Amino acid sequence: MNSILSVVPIEYYLGLSVILFTIGVMGVLFRRNAIIVFMCIELMLNAVNLLLTAFSTLHGEAGGQVMVFFIMAVAAAEVAVGLAILVMIYNNLRTVDIKEMNKLKW
Amino acid sequence: MLNQNLPFMILATLSVFSALMVVLSRKPVHSVLYLIFCFFTIGGHYLLLNAQFLFAVHIIVYAGAIMVLFLFTLMFINLNKELEPHKTNLVKGAATIVAGTLLLIMVSTVTDTGNILPQQASTNEVGTVAVLGKKLYSDYVLPFEITSILLLAAMVGAVMIGKRIQIKIKHNEFNT
Q1: What is the ipTM of this complex?
Q2: Which of A60, A68, A100, B105 has its CA 20 to 30 A from that of B145?
């Protein structure tokens, strides 16, 4: 069974993943809301997942897709703990602005 | 040629647009909704790549679990009323320059590696549940089991952190 990769060159997927990853980096640098920063990290993880899947399909190897599965599990764990930390920070500081979270900075 | 590219092009445009709107929209709830849309378009890419198992897991885990968690936290904190103060123009310009430089570096690296890529896509069927299940329970069985421990640890950690801890040490108790 032929996949989309027989008509779409892999370079297009490389370009799309690079663009998505860069948008995620820009969001992390751009925004001050900690939840949005978290979402941009998820965006970067997804860009990498997409590229791993594309190369796994290109080479006909299942290892890449297994790796994507593990990345998804780690992302779920990370989000659960991270959002719990954010809720605790909000309970203590009454804000999720990352400018206010500078107690460990200096 | 263009007709065959069309599904990929439409999905790619939608993903990039919604990813940009995640970063640029002012209200956090709009960002979350755009991110859900972005995840669905990436799921569409998985379908195009014949990765049915990953499509199902992606929709269930990301669009189902993670984004519900995000929305729940957002509603819990109730940030939608106040618009966040934006960063100064200096920081915005610096962020754009850094991101643009990163894009340039990655694009140049990718164009350098173009020659070693295989030109012919493999026709093996790798994305189905049967193939991935066999792989997961034979070659990758140890990481798979460790993942369950990781999820358990994350669950315990989230509960412990999220619990409202009332530690109040009285001063005279502390001194004596």
Answers
A1: 0.91
A2: A60
